[in-house]
């Protein structure tokens, strides 16, 4: 990091935080990640809305949309393309888990240069695997993009080959939930299915954009528990996150798919929305 | 923090860490907390052994016993009494969950002045409650004192009254696991029972000292699932952590206990071990 990243911490250009910050002590905070294209942060309003919702879930005071917007714009003026990460923690506190009565949240906004290429795209898509590491069930934290991400770290450590692009994680009962850094969609019997995230998982912004787009286009959508065996029946599988957008899956262990018509149609629709965002037309 | 704490980060006297540290990004690290009495860190060797074991669980390179011992001693020379916290993270990395191939761990050692008083002691003990917030099940992380502590933060936020000293947390199935910052013991039918931590919870150093002491003294011990209803049958209940040691429970919701004979006997034995540690006799 460093050379190719610009960082604002509480509005100041610096890159260090107090070691007593509850983000460092307990992972007591939330974050979001989004691409910046042509100087414009893509779907920023959705990301800020999600941050605000997640802060409310953890009862962290939200710094406010206009303050975060201003700081994001400041970074985007310095660097017009890259990956933006916004992190909000409960700030410093006394020793112990008890949240301070009047927390003073820390906000860290980092714009890293360059957009990671999507492996295999265009045309080929992602090769993925199943992870052994399971997601713990916790309805009170489910859906929140918080800073307790050891499960994802452990799952991502399960493979080293660059030929495998993502791993799927299941809950303790074996139901599929998501990828380590992406949400999961499958087309089964003509219906777009994505796992229910009411007891674990991260409700990604791109997942919500895909769901909204599919509904607007009259595509049948089901948000429900999804068993690994069901992927045998899937005619299309794709992953989503805000940086890679729609990421077609072409191989999972011994099963292969081509990039299907629904994946292509949704991808065109999403890319059009992103193009409009990057031209400032929204 | 700050004024009444001395901090060493990677051996240097400073109090800030890189915001790109994986401890701050993902809670990707471990920690331990212990008291310093008469300039001596109590049960330091057990805490370092636990840190080494926990680092191995997360595949974080352990900085080594002798290095940590030297830095701890350096702080204890500056301040002879207080609470010592040792934190080890996977250090900085590139964007993304994937652990760096050659991590450069960060170690933060903080000695805070003063030992917190144990509410209600001596004689009266702790008044506790049940927490609503559940612990997620995750055998791969169970027992590890890692930096993903949002569950404890959420549980500790459930009450504000200083008259309640600790809260008990259950797993998703309703079995008791631990307090937000302590382990749980109950005497049931003459047997010392503490919850099994194979799918969630933190295996505290003081818990292991109590278990070893009880076994050495011929006390019957059971490490097994413990249901809240069973506390109705308990003749004694106590909590443990490295700072408060053995902490008798005198009230839980509508149930009350006096400080029983087994609690007193174990407490005397543990205090004797701590006195020996603080005189450097071990």
Sum up the overall morphology of chain A in one term: globular
Q: What separation lies between the terminal Cα atoms of chain A?
A: 32 Å
What is the CATH topology of the largest domain in chain A?
D-amino Acid Aminotransferase, Chain A, domain 2
Which radius of gyration of chain A do the C-alpha atoms yield? 19 Å
Mean pLDDT of chain A: 94
Overall helicity of chain A: 25-40%
Helix count of chain A?
6
Order of H and E elements of chain A: EEHEEHHEEEHEEEEHEEEEH
CATH superfamily of the largest domain in chain A: D-amino Acid Aminotransferase, subunit A, domain 2
What kind of assembly state do the chains in view correspond to? homodimer
Helix/strand-derived class of chain A?
alpha+beta
Count interface residues per chain for the largest interface. A-B, 62 and 62 residues
The poorly predicted ranges of chain A are none
> How many domains would you count in the coordinates of chain A?
2
CATH architecture heading of the largest domain in chain A: Alpha-Beta Barrel
Number of strands of chain A: 15
Broad CATH class of the largest domain in chain A: Alpha Beta
Q: Please summarize the sheet with the most strands of chain A.
A: 9 strands, mixed
Strand content of chain A: 25-35%
């Amino acid at each position: 990091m460093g050379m190719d990243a610009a960082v604002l911490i509480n509005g100041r250009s610096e890159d260090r935080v107090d070691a007593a910050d509850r983000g460092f002590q307990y992972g007591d905070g939330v974050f979001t990640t989004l691409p910046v294209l042509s100087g414009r942060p893509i779907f920023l309003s959705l990301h800020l809305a999600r941050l605000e919702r997640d802060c409310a879930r953890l009862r962290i005071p939200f710094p406010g949309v206009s303050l975060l917007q201003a700081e994001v714009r400041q970074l985007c003026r310095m660097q017009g393309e890259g990956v933006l990460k916004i992190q909000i923690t409960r700030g410093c506190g006394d020793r112990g888990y008890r949240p301070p009565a009047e927390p003073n949240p820390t906000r860290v906004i980092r714009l890293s240069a360059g957009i990671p290429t999507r492996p295999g795209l265009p045309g080929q898509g992602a090769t993925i695997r199943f992870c052994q590491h399971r997601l713990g069930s916790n309805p009170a934290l489910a859906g929140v993009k918080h800073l307790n991400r050891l499960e994802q770290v452990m799952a991502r450590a399960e493979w080293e080959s660059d030929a495998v692009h993502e791993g799927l994680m299941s809950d303790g009962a074996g139901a599929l939930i998501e990828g380590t850094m992406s949400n999961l969609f499958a087309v089964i019997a003509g219906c777009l299915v994505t796992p229910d995230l009411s007891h674990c998982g991260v409700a990604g912004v791109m997942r919500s954009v895909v769901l909204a787009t599919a509904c607007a286009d009259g595509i049948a959508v089901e948000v429900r528990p999804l068993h690994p065996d069901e992927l045998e029946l899937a005619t299309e599988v794709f992953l989503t996150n805000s940086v890679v957008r729609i990421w077609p899956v072409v191989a999972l262990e011994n099963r292969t798919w081509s990039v299907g018509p629904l994946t292509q149609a949704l991808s065109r629709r999403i890319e059009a929305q992103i193009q409009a965002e990057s031209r400032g037309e929204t």
